[in-house]
């Protein structure tokens, strides 16, 4: 017999079904809680709340396991291409050669962005943060690719291809403009990642050849960022999409959520923190002490700890190794890598950090690699967004296909009770 959860409240007993996922995660199904009992749950930050059933990404925070559609992140990072992983996340299976060829060719053909989007882009101040620009321009795409009123055609696949194809092109505009360099058009004879790198780094005045070491490093980084179940930006995408908002607006909202320093913006904060430590003489133990006394020092160690991983972040392990490999292959000697390792070492042996389960997360080493690849700090979170795009798309599509109801949490009201209106002259 299936398990049930019994709840006794106000002297009455209620029974709620339990459910178990394919990886044995257990939940109480409280969909009818309020109807039956008149109570709601209070779970600030949703630490205990499963917002949906999902078949995309499995994560075990205690064991440090991350899988996309049943494939381990370690396997995918070592063996797959980013676009294969994108296909896997969005369509549920690894593509056959034929499916991949069709998918990849369609993306290749849609990399060009409508010239009128450039006019919108030109209206931004030169120093605008690239994440704000990206979020705005992705939202603007909805004006360029609206679904025809009353059309019965399902255009989701076309929108998916456009997003995957055009977002890297748009992302490079802010970088180029910041340098005062001309923007590059995509070159459709190049693969996805080399095309992005070419738009970022080629100049009309000299030849640019994509370094395979750089392309491979980026491939791994994008795969590691591609999905992470119901994180803040993904939940945002699903919530916005649950109102039947279009995919561009939903993903634009996800980009905004990712921008925050407690989410994707942390990779920028980490490198700035490491730079500050370096500028201050590189004394790691001083900063470990400052982090331990955060209440008085106000110093916060970015890139440590995670809401769901309780022992280690499997992505951080892969990234740390990749950072070593990439820097040595590129012959880059970045002192902040040593500072980062020193900080990790000190923290992992310090009771304060161990007892609080504070160990490096995905954001800790990624910035060091981005920097070695020539990507500037204010573009780090944009790189995260390019990586996360297939995950957002997959989650948006799943939410629609599951016909999820509009997301509408409740609250516990703590404000004033009913009172009489007092006219302004009597206040
Ligand atoms: C992510 O990859 O989205 C971050 O690790 C944050 C999270 O999962 O909560």
Automatic annotation (TrEMBL):
Catalysed reaction equations from the record: oxaloacetate + acetyl-CoA + H2O = citrate + CoA + H(+)
Family: Belongs to the citrate synthase family.
A molecular-function term among this protein's GO annotations: citrate synthase activity
GO BP term, example: tricarboxylic acid cycle
Organism lineage string: Bacteria, Pseudomonadati, Bacteroidota, Cytophagia, Cytophagales
Pathways involved: Carbohydrate metabolism; tricarboxylic acid cycle; isocitrate from oxaloacetate: step 1/2
Name this protein carries in UniProt: Citrate synthase
GO CC annotations on file: cytoplasm
Active site as annotated: 306, 363
Keywords annotated in UniProt: Acyltransferase, Transferase, Tricarboxylic acid cycle
Transmembrane parts of this sequence: none
């Amino acid at each position: 017999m299936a398990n049930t959860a019994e709840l006794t409240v106000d002297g009455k007993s209620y029974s709620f079904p339990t459910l178990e996922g394919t990886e044995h995660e257990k939940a109480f199904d409280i969909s009818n809680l309020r109807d039956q009992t008149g109570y709601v749950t209070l779970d600030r930050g949703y630490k205990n709340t499963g917002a949906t059933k999902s078949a995309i990404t499995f994560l075990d925070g205690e064991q440090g396991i991350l899988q996309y559609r049943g494939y381990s992140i370690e396997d995918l990072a070592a063996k797959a291409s980013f676009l294969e992983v994108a296909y896997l996340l969005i369509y549920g299976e690894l593509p056959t050669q034929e499916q991949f060829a069709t998918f990849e060719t369609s993306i290749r053909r849609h990399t060009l962005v409508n010239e009128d989007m450039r006019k919108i882009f030109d209206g931004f101040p030169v120093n605008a943060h690239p994440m704000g620009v990206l979020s705005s321009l992705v939202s603007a795409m909805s004006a360029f690719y609206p679904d025809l009123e009353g059309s019965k055609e399902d255009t989701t696949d076309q929108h998916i291809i456009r997003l995957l194809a055009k977002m890297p092109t748009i992302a490079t505009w802010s970088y180029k403009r910041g340098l005062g360099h001309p923007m590059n058009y995509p070159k459709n004879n190049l693969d996805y990642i080399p095309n992005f790198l070419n738009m970022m780094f080629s100049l009309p005045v000299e030849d640019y050849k994509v370094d395979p070491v750089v392309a491979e490093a980026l491939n791994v980084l994008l795969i590691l960022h591609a999905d992470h179940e119901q994180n803040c930006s993904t939940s945002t995408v699903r919530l916005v999409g649950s109102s039947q908002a279009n995919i561009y607006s939903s993903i634009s909202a996800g980009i905004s959520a990712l921008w925050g320093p407690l989410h994707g913006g942390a990779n920028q904060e980490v490198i700035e923190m490491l730079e500050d430590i370096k500028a201050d003489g590189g004394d790691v133990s001083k900063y470990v002490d400052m982090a331990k006394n955060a209440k008085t020092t106000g110093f916060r160690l970015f890139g440590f700890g995670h809401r769901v991983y309780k022992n280690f972040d499997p992505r951080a392990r892969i990234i740390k190794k990749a950072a070593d490999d990439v820097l040595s292959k590129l012959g880059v000697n970045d002192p902040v890598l040593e500072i980062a390792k020193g900080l990790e070492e000190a923290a992992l042996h310090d009771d304060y950090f161990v007892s609080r389960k504070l160990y490096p997360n995905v954001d800790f080493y990624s910035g060091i690699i981005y920097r070695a690849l020539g990507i500037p700090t204010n573009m780090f979170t944009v790189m995260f967004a390019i990586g996360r795009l297939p995950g957002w798309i997959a989650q948006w599509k799943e939410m629609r296909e599951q016909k999820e109801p509009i997301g509408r949490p409740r609250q516990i009201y703590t404000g004033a009770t009913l009172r009489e209106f007092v006219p302004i002259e009597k206040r």
